[in-house]
Amino acid sequence: MRIVIQAFMGSIIIHALYFGSAIMVGSIKTSRYKPDIENAWEQAGALQNETVFGKVISPS
User: Global pTM?
Assistant: First the structure.
């Protein structure tokens, strides 16, 4: 029973480290992001001006 409890606690610690590091990296990237509006405007691609109407057949 002791091994099960140790495995459970180890799993909780590993998951906490994983999710904590993902949240930390995301917050750092968000805080350091500076959009470049002028450069993005020059690199905008052409928008599609055609729409296709039809029916999609399920593969199953």
Answer: 0.56
